[in-house]
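## retry 2 of 3
previous attempt timed out at serialization; input unchanged, resubmitting
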Amino acid sequence: MKPRSLSRGRLSRSAEFERVYRQGRSTANRHLVLYAFPNSATGRPRLGLSVSRKVGGAVQRNRVKRLLREAFAGAEAELSPGQDIVVVARPQVSELADREGLAGIDASLTELIVRAGLRSGAAEPEQERP
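## retry succeeded, writing output
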């Protein structure tokens, strides 16, 4: 029997988060910070979430986490296999979740995935133009 965290494609141990933070690459926007690190040992992308108390109370944090997981599940088919991804929610994400719901969270996450070059078939991350 597989451990739950492996079957769901989630990062669960603090050592896994630390490896992604220290060795991975980061991309950010106003609402989220995305860290990505290639991990050839996994067949599919794994997600780790970090939503601090600055985002809001427990109800608001859990709502944000649920929306982030749902947005990630929608984008997972397009992602390159073997990636460990950590998404850190910034305090402004609760306003986005209240205002636009899943559509806003999905747009914000998709923007970071594209900028980081994590979609399968994407050779290089897009460079920002002045």
